[in-house]
Design brief:
Elements (H helix, E strand, L loop, with lengths): L16 H7 L2 H4 L3 H17 L5 H20 L1 H6 L5 H13 L2 H4 L6 H37 L4 E6 L2 E7 H25 L2 E2 L15 H7 L4 E2 L3 H6 L2 H28 L6 E2 L18 H25 L13 H24 L1 E2 L1 H9 L5 H10 L4 H18 L8 H7 L13 H6 L9 H15 L2
Parallel strand pairs: 3-4
Antiparallel strand pairs: 1-2, 5-6
Helix pairs in contact: 3-4, 3-8, 3-10, 4-6, 8-9, 8-14, 8-20, 9-12, 9-20, 12-13, 12-14, 13-14, 16-17
Bound molecules: arginine.
Arginine binds next to α8.
Length: about 450
């Protein structure tokens, strides 16, 4: 049995079922149903303004479209069972059952090319707004976590080697900065997505007197696309979104990695809440940080969607080509993935507990105050390069003796340089080391308090 197609006129034989299945997008683009109906509602009003629908026709179409939307909400699987080629065909066919030939007239001057570009923008604009809200909550939670442990000193690492002590709040606020940039990128995407392709026809514009600006405004877009050819084939807004998402996932994944390490018994700096951990089916002692491992793991697919979309676009001749049907599944999956990951990480942070004692212990071992000792010598007039060399030797000596720098006897210091005096030990204290970094961007408690206050203002703006 041949399906009712939107384009059957010039065809004399039916589709090969293999091709039909290959070509159909309804199984995934039904996600755009809501947007497609919204676009059609506005298009019906635009056709009325253009004198193509009379008010009664427009009203009948609107009523029909709303009913189609209700039906789909009530029984989403019925949409799929329809066997229509894509969501646009489905809506037209379902509207036909309610409004007869007016459903066909609704397509006057409209192509699925401008229609699908509009639908995807409407859909993604809404989703981006939802993701922005989830991101806001994450930004708040970062502030709360930083405020919850204002004193905790932890090793800061480079090369995953203990480097210099920092406040844990400073460390977590570094992620706050990343997430703020992510939010910025998202806002930027929201600005660029806000353009309506509708009324561009298949590629060359419409012959009907459709006021595209009024139509754009009716749909809540900030403007109408100025070039019909670009309008139907542009998917930069998808790239913008996927790049934002990939960068966000890179940040979430780094945080996940930090916390997975810190949650291990080798570090034991943090403890994940039971409610966001899972056990092993074999080893009864295990409590695994699965939530964060999944975040780290899901990052790959989001990167993949970005690369896939870039690749789809790079060789496309103007204008619409069916390749563009491949724009959707990656977007849908990315929306679901990042929404879930942002919420999950937010929950993990909300419930995480620190082990400040363990952190401090680690920060006190490993000569993290060696830079401080070099600075001590610099203050006494030694050039930094020489001080660096000397302190390297002192560290070697101290580790032979199995002592931290603050316990190495003064006579040992004085054997290296007469510049060492009474008071060198006090210069090496952990809290002092941290407190001295008090300029903008540093890890001293005062600087971090200021940074936290500023961060709180920034996340609310
Ligand atoms: N399902 C198609 C897509 O997602 C809709 C647009 C089809 N347009 C066309 N000229 N065949 O891209």
């Amino acid at each position: 049995m041949a399906r009712k197609k939107l384009w059957g006129g010039r065809f004399s034989s039916d589709e090969d079922p293999l091709f039909a299945q290959f070509n159909d997008s309804l199984p995934f683009d039904r996600e755009l149903l809501e947007a497609d109906i919204e676009g059609s509602l506005a298009y019906a009003r635009a056709l009325e303004r253009a004198g193509i629908f009379n008010p009664a026709e427009r009203a009948r179409v609107e009523k029909g479209l709303r009913a189609v939307r209700k039906d789909a909400e009530r029984d989403p699987e019925a949409v799929l069972r329809s066997g229509a080629e894509d969501v646009h065909s489905y809506v037209e066919q379902a509207l036909y059952a309610r409004a007869g030939a007016l459903a066909l007239k609704l397509h006057t001057g409209r192509s699925r090319n401008d229609q699908v570009a509009t639908d995807l923008r409407l859909y993604l604009k809404r989703k981006e707004t939802g993701i922005a809200r989830a991101l806001d909550l994450l930004l708040e939670t970062v502030a709360e976590l930083a405020a919850r442990y204002p004193q905790a000193v932890t090793p800061g690492y480079t090369h995953l080697q203990r480097a210099q002590p920092v406040l844990f709040s400073h460390h977590i606020l570094a992620y706050g900065e990343m997430f703020l940039r992510d939010r910025d990128r998202l806002r930027d995407s929201l600005r660029r997505i806000d353009v309506s392709p509708l009324g561009s026809g298949a590629l060359s514009g419409t012959v009907y007197p459709v006021d595209r600006r009024a139509l754009a405004a009716d749909l809540g877009f900030a403007s109408a696309a100025p070039n019909s050819m670009d309008a139907v084939s542009d998917r930069d807004f998808v790239l913008d979104f996927l790049f934002f998402a990939a960068t966000l996932m890179a940040h979430l994944s780094r945080l996940a990695e930090d916390l997975i390490l810190y949650n291990s018994s080798e570090f034991a700096f943090v403890e994940m809440d039971d409610s966001v951990s899972s056990g092993s089916s074999l080893m009864p002692q295990k409590k695994n940080p699965d939530a964060l491992e999944l975040v780290r793991g899901k990052t790959g697919r989001v990167f993949g969607h970005l690369v896939a979309m870039l690749t789809v676009l790079k060789g496309l001749p103007m204008t619409y080509n069916k390749d563009l049907q491949e724009d959707k599944e990656g977007v849908f999956d990315t929306v679901r993935t990042i929404d879930a990951c942002v919420r999950m990480v937010q929950r993990v942070l909300e419930k995480i507990r620190l082990q400040p004692g363990r952190m401090r212990e680690a920060a006190a071992r490993g000569y993290l105050n060696a830079t401080e000792l070099a600075d001590y010598l610099v203050a006494k007039g030694l050039p930094f390069r020489e001080a660096h060399d000397l302190v390297g030797k002192i560290v070697m000596r101290a580790s032979e003796l199995g002592l931290p720098l603050e316990e190495l006897p003064l006579r040992e210091y004085q054997a290296f340089s007469p510049l060492f005096e009474e008071g060198v030990h006090e210069a090496l204290g952990l809290e002092r080391t941290v407190s001295r970094r008090k300029e903008l961007g540093g890890t001293s408690p005062a600087a971090v308090q200021r940074a936290l206050a500023a961060y709180r203002k920034r996340i609310r703006s």
